[in-house]
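Entry 14: structure prediction run for Putative glutamate--cysteine ligase 2. Input pasted below.
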Amino acid sequence: MRTVGVEEELLLVDPDSGDPKALAAAVLARAAQDDPGQDVFEKELFGQMLEFATHPQSDMADLGDEIVRCRKEAARHAGQIGCGVAALATSPLPVSPALSVNDRYQWLAQRYGIPTWEQLVCGCHVHVSVESDEEGVAVLDRLRPWLPVLRAISANSPFWQGRNSGYASYRSRVWNRWPSAGPTEPFETAERYRRRVADMVDTGVILDEAMVYFDARLSARYPTVEIRVADVCLGAESAVLIATLCRALVETAAREWRAGRAAPDPGVSLLRLADWQAARYGLEEDLLDPVTMRPRPAPRVLRSLLEYTGDALTESGDAARAERAVEELLRTGNGAREQRRLLEHTGSLRDVVAECVRRTQG
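Run finished. Output tokens:
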């Protein structure tokens, strides 16, 4: 069975005011002091962010337990220095990002200017194991139409600098300002994929291979496909659903490749429109159907995703759990809907952050 690992970026905030706090270095120092040799937590582009990575897991219940444990550990380390953590993909409150001390990050700021300083956004990256680069590229080519659906499921960033952005996933609109971000054309072979990445680096526009910010890519560090479209999810159960669907999509795509089925090619222009629709509305309006690229109600698209990956979900033992999670998601909504619901109830973005801290910390 394919293994799955999850990387989550969390927002560090003042537990009273809800304002983001640039205390990542202090939190990491506390984590190293409490657990020498720990390799779970890492710094990110800005001091208001903290990242953790799970171990590869084959059982989704175990993966969920580890995500919850990592969130609680992050909250414990942060709490020791008077800070809280929130699984928010953007800060609802205004913030002036503090760039982490790092030569690479300094290069980004000098190279790209203002867009770098607007990248205080938190995502969820899912790594799914593949047997080879050839299989991985075949999977990437076949995942492309389904990635906007994952975007819609995970959408958790409706507010930006103290304002309603109008988007369910405004993080994705900010992230796509990087020159290498977004959907890709089919690559067809691993050799063509590697050549494209090398050509991109050789332009000098990006620094290195790690800056190839495709929506899904071959990992440069692990034998995995890395799916990068998701916002960090407010609830750990949503992160597990995203991971479950990612594994099922990878397995389904690999089977299609082995069976000789051609990869669909709706074109990057249509994929960008599908991604925009998902980011704008999340699950509240139509999505573009991954097969027809025409509007279709979001619940029907999600159930089509379950049907498309049904064999893989069944064989991994995830079908019933995924179906329950999707129906619950359609009933209660994603993180964007919940944040807006909290604002309507409390009238305060600070109260929204406070409640999200409470839910993140369990």
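Notes: Residues 110 and 116 are 9 Å apart (CA to CA). Will compare against the previous run tomorrow.
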